[in-house]
Automatic annotation (TrEMBL):
GO CC list: cytoplasm
Organism name: Aquimarina intermedia
One MF term in the entry's GO annotations: aldehyde dehydrogenase (NAD+) activity
Record-annotated NAD-dependent epimerase/dehydratase domain positions: 2-231
InterPro entries, per database record: Epimerase_deHydtase (IPR001509), NAD(P)-bd_dom_sf (IPR036291), NAD(P)-dependent_oxidoreduct (IPR051783)
Name of the protein: Nucleoside-diphosphate-sugar epimerase
């Protein structure tokens, strides 16, 4: 039996869809009925009239990954774990919550996997947890983490989660770590890359000159399943289809949504001033900021990622990002 944590998020939900299509016996963790219902709606958009038939194949278990007494029964008869649960935030004020879930929660999953005799775990990390390129132009799986460099609290906690998984491998657990780029996929338009579709549709005017890696959700879930079913273990894999500038991706999204693309380039000074003003408003009035110093840094940095390892390991052909954007935009227009 397979256990999926974070089953109501973007990766978890689309992973469930692929697993039920593969006739896997699945137990899925969830925290709220509202989020579980959202997954059911996405199943309906994928499977149509037969959606309940697929959705009801899943055994749902309500528990937080930080609630060990509630979490422990979920590991009964589990052979494989897909650990997708995480908090994604660049807000320094959420330091404790991020560490609690992304590091401590992952430690709980690893410990229970070892105790319960789980054979293999797949941990969904992030390109944020990767190090800096040395002599090569692109960041790859061997790029070493530099603790002296400036990192967002999200990056620090995802790296910390990876360390917990590597600890598990020293205790006999087989593990796969994936480091996906920005994931493009439908169904979640109030968070992550999905929120970007909403912002651009409403008329986003500005872009920054940064570059990062992008990948389609179907490629992420496909790679996860194939790696778990393979003999490969105790390895990490970057999942990036293309490295693109923010202007390029914003324009692709705008064209797919049939709206005007952002044309005004923002300067680092402007962004830093905006971040400082928002921080002041947060301290004075409790208004949650949307721009953080760490996100300003990434908005202006050019990070290029190498995908050679995963392509050679699985002979994987990535979905073009333009196609992934078009499919996601189509789903956005239907919602």
């Amino acid at each position: 039996m397979v256990l999926v944590t974070g089953a109501t998020g973007l990766v978890g939900t689309h992973l469930l869809i692929k697993l039920v299509q593969n006739n896997k016996s699945i137990r899925a963790l969830y925290r709220s009925e509202q989020k579980k219902h959202h997954v059911q709606q996405i199943f309906a958009s994928v499977f149509g009239a037969t959606s309940d038939q697929f959705f009801n194949k899943i055994e749902w278990h309500q528990a937080s990954i930080n609630d060990i007494p509630a979490l422990t029964p979920a590991f009964k008869n589990i052979n494989e774990v897909y650990h997708c649960a995480a908090i994604i935030s660049f807000n320094p004020a959420m330091d404790k919550q991020l560490r609690k879930v992304n590091i401590e929660g992952t430690a709980n999953i690893v410990n229970l996997s070892i105790i319960s005799g789980v054979k293999k775990i797949c941990y969904v990390s992030s390109i944020a947890a990767l190090g800096e390129p040395k002599n090569q132009f692109k960041i790859d799986e061997t790029s070493e983490w530099n603790p002296e460099s400036k990192h967002s609290i999200y990056a620090i906690t995802k790296y910390g989660g990876e360390m917990e998984v590597w600890r598990g491998t020293q205790e006999g657990l087989q593990a796969i770590i994936i480091n996906p780029g920005v994931i493009i996929g439908p169904g979640f338009f109030n968070s992550g890359s999905g929120f970007l579709f909403k912002r651009i549709y409403k008329g986003l005017k500005y872009h920054t000159p940064g570059i990062t890696g992008y990948v389609a959700i179907q490629d992420v879930t496909k790679a996860m399943i194939e790696l778990m079913e393979s003999r490969h273990a105790n390895e990490r894999y970057i999942l990036v289809a293309e490295n693109m500038s923010f202007k390029q991706i914003f324009t692709l999204i705008a064209v797919s949504l049939k709206v005007e693309p952002p044309t005004k380039r923002v300067t680092p000074f402007f962004m830093k001033v905006a971040a400082n003003i928002q921080w002041l408003l947060y301290r004075l009035f409790g208004i949650s900021p949307t721009i953080y110093k760490s996100s300003v840094q990434s908005a202006f940095s050019a990070s290029m990622y190498e995908n050679k390892k995963i392509k050679e390991t699985l002979n994987l052909e990535f979905t073009p990002i333009e196609k992934a954007v078009e499919e996601t935009a189509k789903a956005f227009s239907k919602k």
